[in-house]
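2024-03-11 09:14:02 INFO receiving multi-entity request
2024-03-11 09:14:02 INFO entity count = three
2024-03-11 09:14:03 INFO echoing inputs for audit
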Amino acid sequence: MSDPYFITVSVITIASAIIALEFRELIYGAIALAVTLLGIAIFFVLLDATFVAMFQITVYVGAVVVLIIFTIMLVRREAWLRLDEGGRRRVMGAVIALAIIGLLGALLAASSIARWQASESVPTLMQIGEEMLTYYSPAFIALALTLAASVVGALVLAKVDRGKGRDKGKGEGEGEWDEEESSSGFERGGELEGERKESVEGEER
Amino acid sequence: MVISMVDLYSTPIILTIILGVTGLILPLLDAFRRRDMSHKVHGSIAFGALILSIAVILVRIASGSIPLGIVFTDQVIADDMFGSFFSIAMLIVAIVAVVSSIEYMRRVPNPGPYYSLILLSSIGMVMLAYSTDLLMLIVAWELMSIPTYVLAAFKKKDPLANEAAIKYFLFGALASGMLIYAASLIYGITGSTNIAAVMQALISIDQGLRPLAFIALALLIAGFGFKMALVPFHMWIPDTYEGAPTPISALLSAATKKAGFAAAFKAVIFGMLVFNVEWSLMLAVIAVLTMTIGNLAALTQRSMTRILAYSSISQAGYMLIGLSLAPYSDLAMQGALFHVMNHAVMKSSAFIAAAGIALVIGTMNIDQYRGIGRRMPLISLVMAVSLLALAGVPPLNGFWSKFILFAAAVNAGSTVSWAPYLAIAGILNSALSLGYYAWVIRRMYFDEPVTIPTVNQSYVYGRAGVLKIKEPRLILATLLFALAFMVGFGVYPAPLIAFSQASVPSSDVFSLLPIEVQSNIVSDQQRYGGSSVEMEVEVEDHGDGSHGSEGDAATITTVVGYEPSTLEGEDGTDTGSTNGDKTDGELNATTNATSTIGHKP
Amino acid sequence: MAEILDYTIVSIILLAIGIYGLTVKRNFIRMLFAVEIIVNAANLNLVAFSRLMPSPNATGQTFALFSIAIAAAEVAVGLALMIVAYRIYRNIDIKGLKRLSG
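2024-03-11 09:21:47 INFO inference complete, emitting structure
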């Protein structure tokens, strides 16, 4: 525990993680999150994993946090910026967190990883590439599909649907398609159905 | 380093290619046309791809080149029977969801991405079932989950759907965070993510690392538990199933949950290596809690989707019985797998039937189901049959899987003393569940029709005065398939039993177990004078009760003790009376039966 | 050079902070932050083990790369869900959304 870099980086990382969750203004929270993620990237550099560090910075800080900040900017005027969780709830959460740290920390400190000796050999970028494209190639395909799915999904959700673009008069003569309507369309059917519904009832009796 | 590429002709890769290509083409189809195409076009393409995938699996199985049970290789995926079994179960659910969506989601825009996401999610499920590597498992898990977050929110103007999706997303993201954390610890302990290598390393684990392994496994079970609907992690289930479009609820409840089980089967296997007895006892306790809490909560619900959601939670408990007894009894695993397949069909057909009814009468509230049995005879019939199958009423398929599970629990009593209690809890819970299933059936068939609040115009035909309700055709088609499955395999369950038997992880997986558990298994087999496979066959044709050894006698006693009591419960259903007395009777009958078995060895 | 235990302790603290955030916060974006913190704690573990275990191998780093990509995909979908919610409610404090419970 004598490494000053390590101690500095861990203090910054942990502190900014707490700030990210607790700072009132959401946008500064997002920036604090970016600092946490940068701190993790510095850890990766300390661990001789420079490629992962670069990836972390480009993807997390460069894309994820920027995306989050854009979203916050879009919706920031809203009421949810004012957090209202009660003090009791917060105390309970803190107790849970401390219990996790205490329990897992004690288990870790007691375990034999505390006695592990670091070896001199460093995993290289070439090994990563080789693993990713040979042993992990199916996982790589699955990852590609995951990203495709998230793109398709995010686009569909973010897209504003124009209600008038569809085949009219198709599908059981329902007439103009209205986007406000839910899929089963029973609300409107019910409204229009006044007497006909009655006659269904009558037939039953 | 040996460069090992995955076999391009293995089943999971072929399925990935079929479903992936179709899934990626579907949203592009819209790009070439100015107007959205209808759900019919996209739905049919997706349906074709899914049918083709099932055909590929079946052809591969028929060719005899698929190894039985779970195979752990040095690859990230293994083409084995276990994976094929789960894939078929999940693809059937995907087909049911696709076909019913064509009708149910008719008015929701963006059909291309909708079916594309269902297909991508099914690739995730398939790869999850075949994966033999923790990293592969997690990537497949995400591929399965991410599309379903979107699908749950697909009705963008519906606040309920959105809230359901947000809840589902947060719990899902937490679950995947836990899984990645658990995998990181397991990697730290063993230096690998390949499950075979992890198992090898865990056998000779340093005592000082055991606590870490325990944390990792607890996190794994918690992570999987969110998808499996186990009890401490079940709170999102009813809200999500209620808010999401009902075909998607069917997909979530009947398919992604099964994928969670497929993953947990693999995780539990190496959990057993490190903590043999405590681990399975913990799972057994969760199983009983899950069953009981799910059923009790379902009793108070009035919304059909919430009833089905809670019933889905309780059904997870039954499957967990098999999981917790996995090291002691092949039969339990077989029962669990069989139940996985059955539940996939029963639960999806119940959800789709509810969707069909909601499409016409516009509500999920069972108080509005009065008289539905006469207005929509076919849908109501399938609804009733699937509810009875879920309760485990013979001669439906749900009866057989529950029966095998409980028989296995009773048999395992000679190895682990608490196992028979699982069977008792399971039977009591089946009786409890019959309470709310019977309520729904009573509403549909035995209550006087009331004014239906709204009837969807599209499903009414005839001239004024003699209007009739037209049952939604595509939904009906899926339901009739499910009905054939439930009744067909209820009357003649042998093929499915054989299939699940072939998919059970073979006992050599457990030959890696620490010595004391192994000796238990051996003594178990000696006591019953035969291998466990023999017992399974005998369960299959239990009717001709002329077997010699004690183990078989025990099995047959359970049959005798179980069948009449279940029939009693069924009578209770038919008369529509409160079945409190019946439940007590059943309790006594089963307790007697089980206690005699308990004394025999 | 810090030892493996130091890294795992930092990772556990981050995990605990993430779980704290998920149990306490009722704001979707904060909860998303908490999830990201948990995933990063896991990544820190992975890379630390990859370098500092008795026989280092690259698997941990590969795993971390996969996990970063997955988290990015998840965030994209999560934020899209939030945009949809914003259009519906103009208020995404999920404590306010009580209609489904019961």
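2024-03-11 09:21:48 INFO post-check: Residues 513-601 of chain B have pLDDT under 50 and may be disordered.
2024-03-11 09:21:48 INFO post-check: The first strand of chain B starts at residue 460 and ends at 461.
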